[in-house]
Amino acid sequence: MIQAVRPRRRTELGLIVLVALIVVSAYILASLGRTSEMPANAGPFLGIILGLLLLAHVALRIWAPTADSILLPMAGLLNGLGYVFIARLDHRLAALQATWTILGVGAFVLTLAVVRRARDLERYRYTLAFLGVAFLLLPLVPHIGRNINGARLWVRVGSITFQPGELAKLALAVFFASYLVDKRELQARPTWRVGPLFLPDPKHLGPIVLAWGASLVVLFSENDLGTSFLFFALFIAMLWVATGRGAYLGVGFTLFVAGAGLAYKTFAHARSRIQVWINPWAHAQTAGYQVIQGLYAMGSGGLAGSGLGLGSPTRIPEVATDFIFAAIGEELGLLGTAAIVLAFVIIVGTGLRIALRAEREFDKLLATGLTFTIGLQAFIIMAGVTRLTPLTGITLPFISYGGSSLVANYVLLALLLRISTGS
Amino acid sequence: MNRQIRFVGLGMLVLFLALFLQLNYLQVVDANKLAHDPRNTRIATRDFSRPRGDILSADGKVLAHSVPSNDIDKLLRTYPAGALFAQIVGYYSFTYGSDGVERQYDGQLSGRSAPIGVNNIGGLFTAQDRSETVTLTIDSRVQFAAATALGNRRGAVVAIVPSTGAILAMWSYPSYDNTPLASHNPKVAAQAWNSYQADALTPMLARAFRERFFPGSTFKLVTASAVYDHDPALATKVYPTLGALPLPNTNHLTLSNFGGETCGGTLPTLLRVSCNSGFAQIGLDLGASNLAAEANAFGFDQRPPLDLPNPAVSNFPPASSFAQDLPGVAKSAIGQQDVSATPLEMALVAAGLANGGVIMRPHVLENIKDSEGQIVQSYQPQPWLTATSAATALTMRGLMIQVVQAGTGTAAQLPGVQVAGKTGTAQTGNNTVHTWFVAFAPADAPQVAVAVLVENQPASNDFTGGQIAAPIAKKVIQAALAAG
Q1: CB–CB of B12 and A348 under 8 A?
Q2: What ranges in B263-407 are assigned the alpha helix state H?
Q3: Can you give the pLDDT at residue A266?
Q4: Cα–Cα dist B302/B386, whole Å
Q5: How far apart are alpha carbons A218 and A202 in whole angstroms?
Q6: Which of B136, B264, B268, B371 lies 20 to 30 Å from A311, alpha-carbon distance?
């Protein structure tokens, strides 16, 4: 194993330097595009990026020397490009995002240092489950919960606002993994016959119905379609991966359709999203405005984009968070958006490879769950922005502005890397 | 478990592949449509901050010019000639899009359609000013004469060079000031736009080429040409002197002459005095299909190839629509019922007769120059339609000279210049008339053809085409001959 250490970390180091150069070049180009001037702080900027990535790199050398070499540079690239766009879109948010990036890398290092073996997490299964649910429900607590854009996802303490749901998804992924590995009876053959269908024993359906119910609670009380779908899909996917029983997918799909139908019927917010998805032009000045502005941005970007700093993405509402992908589409074109999609494909591929190679079932399941989370979340928002699916507001991992999301994804990354060491 | 993990991977791959395809659709297949959607103001923003070429009149007056401004759009479009050219030049507005020459020649003015000259490698990397200057055929002196002669009466004047189709003047009253529409202050633009739109006199409607009117007796030029082209025997037929023509297949309905006069005789006489009863009978003798064919040959029912956006199509009903309607044939022969024409079309009728029967493509573009003043494109005159034979055109010219010398159009006589013309006084149905005059001059070597329309004049013997429109045509012809 010792021989494998050096090449992997050396590869990572090389990629990190490359990533830093790409990000700094993009930063300089964005400044040139906007003001025709070299950014005054390009040197310090390069220093900070390299410094942060090297900090994470050294942490891996110390605490996880055999970890995968691709994930950290990929996250650094997405985070760096995201920062370039945020800085280009909104200077005020850029300063905050820089702070959150530092916190994120700190959380990454801390996770590696504290979680020395993935299996240690299993012991805190119920604590994490409790924390996860508590995080999810925190925005509902009066006085600290905050409504932003019609969704109650935020918690405000002092001057800091964050989305506890982002951390909840990690806690719940760990809980799901350990719970499912533990409950072998879920893998039993379905014996419960309903008409022509064989369904899993009703008592084993308990968890799935619970997850469905919980996601519906989130949906209705917090007005958050994206997160609720993400949780539900995460649980169903992990249930299926753990058991291999296709019936769970069937039940999950049915419940999803039922939930979506219920939301459509009772929930103006959800109905409006579907209508905008079907025909945004009919709501061009109202509910469809944001989607249409995003489409205009991406269409105007075309194949190669307008060039960094040369487009007009600030016309899109919420462009630094939910719609940052459209800004990338305008200024970097299809080449840029395809590169982002490819980066997520690489992250998902690497994460699943880690899951395949892991020896313990809990590690496998957790790696799959974590990878699925990041991949599906990226897909949900990119597909929503491009009108492939109805839009649900959720951050684009590592790229969008959003502190809680960034910190949570760095922790997720550290856990995946920890699993990749096989310890 | 590995089997399921691979399936998860496959599933995610399918999702991302679908996303990639959707991105290709948005950013390649549909990109052009999205980028040029009129509600997507990105291209406008970009163009607004770029140099934009001037628009000049034939005599060098600046009609549109961009001046530096201190806001984000950097350049403000101004129209020094204002209302006099607004309906030709149009506007270039952030909020309301564009119209007129600003729209028609946008590619040249903005430089987007200019060829990229690669004289040296360095040119590829520097921002060249590729905007081009558009010079029009319209002469500001003729345009001004037309506007002055028409005064504050609703109507339109079109003057055209018969041999080239170059438009010398195209004016309608009322017009509007286009400068506020180009304002970078959306409130200023909106206020101007809304007031123009609310105005019952429709100042933004370019009556000269976008509105149709009953041509009335000016249409008799087409009917008379049809006689020579389709049934020359009728040219020598003597029509009875009548006060009113009983209409066929009706219960005692008649078609009366203007002012209750009686008239009759052969075709030259009928045209000279503009005899309704005679021409109605000629129409019946010719038949609907001959009339419709001649009208089509003169450009009715076809969109004129004018180089301005949305010219209206003049209308003559298809022959089949008269199958059960003989009175309609009689009325159509004198330019009534469902016959309608733009002032531009009636000017083209005159221009065709002046040009040996060939109507040239009407155009306002003279040439396009690059930012260094070199002509990169000149308009090449092209025939549009062969309306009639050279022989018919020659005969018609003689008849039209008679109209001005001794008929209804004497008010258009010019000292030393022979004018050929035809009057028109078309009943509108609400006790007013549209008065017309179409003409060309000099008759033996025509340099200009004009059509004048004055709308909604009182229906009385003092307000005929000969009295109201002919003097305007005379002044415009004078100005055109002086300018040429």
Answers
A1: yes
A2: 267-272, 276-286, 288-297, 326-333, 343-354, 390-406
A3: 83
A4: 13
A5: 24
A6: B371
Report whether B397 contacts B224 (CB < 8 A). no
φ, ψ (nearest 5 deg) of residue B94: -65, -40
Of B47, B102, B2, B31, residue with least CA distance to B308: B102
- Determine the residue among A386, A389, A419 to mutate to test chain B binding: the one whose Cβ has the most chain B Cβ atoms within 10 Å: A386
For A237, nearest residue in chain B (alpha carbons): B8
> pLDDT tens-digit profile of B177-229?
999 998 888 789 889 999 999 999 999 999 999 999 999 999 999 999 999 99
Nearest Cα of chain B lies from the Cα of A356 at a distance, in angstroms, of 6
Nearest one of A151, A169, A231, A225 to A383, comparing CA atoms: A225
Rounded-to-integer distance, Cα B145 and Cα B148, Å: 5
Q: Which ipTM did the prediction report? A: 0.92
Residue ranges of the domains in chain B? 216-365+383-483
Task: Check CB contact of B26 with chain A, cutoff 8 Å.
Answer: yes
The closest CB to that of A244, out of B4, B24, B40, belongs to B4
Whole-angstrom distance between the N-terminal and C-terminal Cα of chain A?
Answer: 12
Helix A125-137 with A202-222: angle, nearest 10 deg: 30
Contact present, B77 and B99 (Cβ < 8 Å)? no
Residue A154: pLDDT over 80: no
- CATH 3.40.710.10, domain B216-365+383-483, yes or no: yes
- Residues ≥6 apart with Cβ < 8 Å to B382: B165, B360, B361
In this predicted structure, what is the pLDDT of residue A158? 64
